[in-house]
Amino acid sequence: CISICVITGCEKKEEKQKETEKTNKVKTTTDITKKNGTLECTRSGEIDGGEGEFNYVINYKGEDVSSIHSEESVKSDSSDVLDTYEKSYRTIDGYYTGIDHYIAKVNRTSNKVTHTIDIDYEKINIQKLIELEGEEDNIFENNKAKLDKYLDLAKKMGVTCVEK
Q1: What is the pLDDT, as a whole number, of residue 65?
Q2: Residues of the chain below pLDDT 50
Q3: Reported pTM
């Protein structure tokens, strides 16, 4: 009886937590309750030969994104899969070499590749980013990273955000 009660109690707590997460999801800027704050955004799923987990911490002031901390991890038992992701991440990072306030690093273990990026949008040269990334499908407007554009992009990518 004790184990059944404990399991039932956990299930109810998990259900309540899932309901809370559903109601706290931020899909547009109208869902945000604070003028300045932090959003925690996540996505996970299967990739060819492994699993991916993608976490983003978005700091914002009003309508503008002030910084992003991105941590993308790929787990796999296949060294070929890990090699592919590590090479891809390092190639991408190479394009951003020399752009101040864009810090990227790749970490590899026996079964995981983690790609971490920190961008300070208040200090970075936005024009350099636009030159590199292009005018289409970016999050910039009038040389500012816009929160509503980030949320639109996140939604397209299957990323879910909640206020911290």
Answers
A1: 97
A2: 1-21
A3: 0.82
Q: Give me the pLDDT at residue 6, please.
A: 43
| pLDDT one-digit tens code per residue, 94-120 | 999 999 999 999 999 999 999 999 999
Radius of gyration of the chain (CA): 19
Q: What is the pLDDT of residue 29?
A: 83
The 8 Å CB, 24+ separation contacts for 48-54 are 48/81, 49/76, 49/78, 49/80, 49/81, 50/74, 50/75, 50/76, 50/77, 50/78, 50/81, 50/82, 51/75, 51/76, 54/159
